[in-house]
Amino acid sequence: MASSHSNYINSPCAACKFLRRRCTSGCVFAPYFPPDEPTKFANVHRIFGASNVSKILHEVAPHQREDTVNSLAYEAEARLNDPVYGCVGAISVLQRQVLKLQRELEETNADLRRYARALGGETTSNYGGQRG
Amino acid sequence: MASSHSNYINSPCAACKFLRRRCTSGCVFAPYFPPDEPTKFANVHRIFGASNVSKILHEVAPHQREDTVNSLAYEAEARLNDPVYGCVGAISVLQRQVLKLQRELEETNADLRRYARALGGETTSNYGGQRG
Q1: How confident is the model over B46-71, as pLDDT tens digits?
Q2: What does the alpha-carbon distance between residue B46 and residue A48 come to, in Å, rounded to a whole number?
Q3: Chain A residues near residue B85 by CB distance under 8 angstroms
Q4: Per residue in B8-25, pLDDT tens?
Q5: Is pLDDT larger for residue A97 or for residue A121?
Q6: Whose CA is closest to A58, among B127, B83, B13, B94?
Q7: Nearest CA to B62 among B24, B14, B30?
């Protein structure tokens, strides 16, 4: 993604286009907001604001900026889709899924221990323990 | 939380105090940013900006505003703790945990099926199937 700026060296990046300003060679947005992805910047601008995004990008190391922009874009899209919970909604769903799977695994392990007892002691060293 | 404004009716809310403005009775922030929780507003202001938070609050129904503020506060705190991934980091961790648990459950169910076969056909109707 960081190399995509060179593909559009004559076009302003999506951020500068959106903000109607000149895109200079040192533009902090340009490597991560190519002009062919206008929605990506529009979304992060709408949720975080351009100056907050710029501030965050200047706070992180250059090699971490692509991941930073992608996680901000993910958060912004989630908030636009769900203004109440944003991506915290996905965290709740995943937390419930983890709890459900943990319960299921415990029950299955309990079944396994019952089977191990039914089959006799010689196999219990292979089966019936909680998986690590 | 929504009732806490009445406890501090003579103090400006944390948002108005932070923004150094008069807190009026119709303040959209006041019910969700009581003056005794100054960090909550400072965090969402730093990540989203006060005007974006106000815009989001006006977009959602009044009964959803408390959840909205709490999810914004959670996201803002996560971003301040981890400027690169924010709460998307938690989503990645949870997604990996779900995949690990699903694999573990599949393996345990496969063990269970082996046990059921070893114990003979009459018990396979009770054990050895994937849990629903």
Answers
A1: 999 999 999 999 999 999 999 999 99
A2: 9
A3: 67-68, 71
A4: 557 899 999 999 999 999
A5: A97
A6: B83
A7: B30
Contact A55, A44 (CB under 8 A): no
- What stretches of B1-132 show up as alpha helix (H) in DSSP? 4-7, 14-19, 38-47, 50-59, 65-81, 88-119
Q: Which of A51, A94, A111 sits opposite B127 (nearest CB)?
A: A111
In contact, A76 and B79? CB cutoff 8 Å: no
Tokens 């909205």 found at: B68
Q: Six-digit token pair at B115?
A: 């046990």
Tell me how close the Cα of A87 comes to any Cα of chain B, in angstroms.
8
Does ipTM come in above 0.85? no
Question: From CA B15, how far away is CA B30, in angstroms rounded?
Answer: 7
